[in-house]
């Protein structure tokens, strides 16, 4: 119905209220399609309705009380709410009632697809979707976003308070087993010698300290043994006693085993050959001794390594090197023995970086009592770089990381969420340490925070768009 028709109906109703009785068909202001008498005036004191309008605001009017097809009464329109032709008169403020509560003022309507488009009145987009109303209080100036309880339930928003926790940060890196350089012994002659006999010992054999390895004849050793025997068998003065000590030292300088020197002292004879024994428990790494061979001074005949204690050489990535420190506990797992764990501590951080792999080498000392860790064996290490002290931490899922900055959403209660930038530190066990930005006990959103962040960004964009003049 256009404005002229509505005004005519209004005038007709006013005439009827003033003492009317005009038949609508005879009135010059009659409304097409309306027959019968105009309804009498309402009781004195109540606003007099001049016509009745569809309760949903549709362009459907009546001069008499009427019902919609679904049984609802038409809304009575008094003279004070009738259409005005005054251009300066303000339009009615759009309101909406939610869940039977008091009405809230609708500020504007935003595009349902998130486009920077707003409207002062209800409208549809190009696809026929209704614009979404934005109420007062939903676009606050503090940067927070407010969601309805229904939306919070549908999106699965969950919060968890920030609390002090012990974070166990693990650095995983591969490595290999190496022999302890301090536990390797070499058997070499210090004088020209001849190998008379070699024991049944080969490379890879396990020997114990004192086990015979070979028999050696050396002219220098025999001469020194004869000299020492002469000094201990003769009746000497105190000066000759000192000379006898010098003879024993000569044998020791030729690396004659203590057992062979003790045998000379007991037997009081000069042996034809000297029995050489293993200086420590370990594995024979090298066997060069052959019966009948001639050995020059410095010639290596045996190399023995004790591997009851070994090293794990771990290759740590350059990015993790700053978290590694001497003394940190390490757990080593051998790929050959699933389920077995060997524990140790970081002993040495080598002061160099491999330029091809960009890794640094870390040394860990491990006990190898059952001798199952072998030289050059592959292992995997877990270095615990976390601090034993409790720190303020939040779940990792609460962090919104853009690369340039990290932020979280603080649950302020009653469906309001505040984005806040934070400074983070170490991570572990699904938690991350917070240096600043969150206080102890403050609840942070740990689930569906990306949806809330998207809603916040959308409202911020719409607000900025409306501030440029698009908002009604």
Automatic annotation (TrEMBL):
Residues 185-305 form the CusB-like barrel-sandwich hybrid domain. The lineage of its organism: Bacteria, Pseudomonadati, Pseudomonadota, Alphaproteobacteria, Hyphomicrobiales. GO terms for biological process: copper ion export; plasma membrane copper ion transport. SUPFAM superfamilies: HlyD-like secretion proteins. It holds the Pfam family BSH_CusB. Keywords: Ion transport, Plasmid, Signal, Transport. Residues 1-24 form the signal peptide. GO terms for molecular function: transition metal ion binding; transmembrane transporter activity. Belongs to the membrane fusion protein (MFP) (TC 8.A.1) family. Residues 392-452 form the CzcB-like C-terminal circularly permuted SH3-like domain. GO terms for cellular component: membrane; outer membrane-bounded periplasmic space. This is Secretion protein HlyD. It comes from the Bacteria. Residues 310-385 form the CusB-like beta-barrel domain. Residues 49-101 are annotated as: Disordered. NCBIfam families: RND_mfp (TIGR01730). InterPro entries: Beta-barrel_RND_2 (IPR058792), BSH_CusB (IPR058790), CzcB_C (IPR058649), MFP_Cation_Efflux (IPR051909), RND_pump_MFP (IPR006143).
């Amino acid at each position: 119905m256009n404005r002229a028709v509505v005004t005519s109906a209004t005038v007709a109703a006013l005439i009827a209220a003033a003492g009317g009785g005009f038949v609508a068909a005879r009135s010059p202001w009659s409304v097409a399609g309306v027959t019968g008498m105009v309804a009498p005036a309402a009781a004195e004191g109540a606003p007099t309705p001049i016509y009745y309008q569809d309760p949903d605001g549709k362009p459907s009017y009546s001069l008499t009380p009427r019902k919609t097809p679904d049984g609802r009464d038409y809304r009575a329109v008094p003279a004070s709410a009738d259409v005005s032709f005054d251009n300066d008169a303000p339009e009615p403020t759009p309101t909406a009632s939610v869940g039977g509560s008091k009405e809230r003022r609708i500020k504007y309507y935003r595009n349902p697809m998130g486009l920077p488009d707003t409207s002062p009145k209800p409208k549809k987009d190009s696809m026929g979707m209704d614009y979404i109303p934005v109420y007062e209080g939903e676009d606050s100036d503090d940067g927070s976003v407010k969601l309805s309880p229904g939306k919070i339930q549908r999106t699965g928003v969950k919060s968890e308070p920030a609390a002090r926790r012990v974070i166990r940060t693990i650095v995983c890196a591969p490595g290999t087993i190496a022999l302890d350089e301090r536990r390797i012994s070499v058997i070499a002659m210090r004088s020209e010698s001849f190998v008379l006999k070699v024991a049944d010992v080969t490379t890879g054999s396990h020997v114990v300290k004192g086990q015979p390895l070979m028999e050696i004849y050396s002219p220098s050793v025999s001469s020194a043994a004869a000299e020492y025997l002469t000094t201990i068998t003769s009746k000497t003065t105190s000066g000759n006693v000192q000379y006898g000590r010098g003879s024993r030292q000569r044998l020791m300088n030729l690396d004659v085993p203590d057992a062979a020197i003790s045998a000379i002292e007991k037997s009081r004879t000069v042996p034809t050959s000297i029995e050489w024994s293993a200086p420590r428990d370990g594995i024979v790494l090298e066997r060069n001794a052959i019966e009948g061979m001639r050995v020059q001074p410095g010639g290596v005949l045996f190399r023995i390594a004790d591997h009851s204690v070994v090293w794990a050489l771990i290759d740590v990535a350059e990015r993790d090197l700053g978290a590694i420190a001497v003394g940190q506990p390490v757990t080593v797992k051998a790929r050959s023995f699933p389920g077995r764990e060997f524990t140790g501590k970081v002993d040495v951080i080598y002061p160099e970086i491999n330029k091809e792999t960009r890794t640094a080498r870390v040394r860990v000392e491990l006990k190898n009592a059952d001798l199952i860790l072998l030289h050059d064996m592959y292992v995997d290490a877990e270095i615990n770089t976390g601090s034993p002290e409790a720190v303020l931490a939040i779940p990792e899922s609460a962090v919104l990381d853009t690369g340039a900055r990290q932020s979280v959403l603080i649950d302020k209660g009653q469906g309001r969420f505040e984005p806040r930038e934070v400074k983070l530190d170490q991570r572990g066990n699904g938690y991350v340490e917070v240096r600043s930005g969150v206080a102890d006990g403050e609840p942070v959103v740990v689930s569906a925070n990306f949806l809330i962040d998207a809603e916040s960004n959308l409202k911020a964009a719409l607000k900025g768009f409306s501030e440029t003049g698009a908002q009604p």
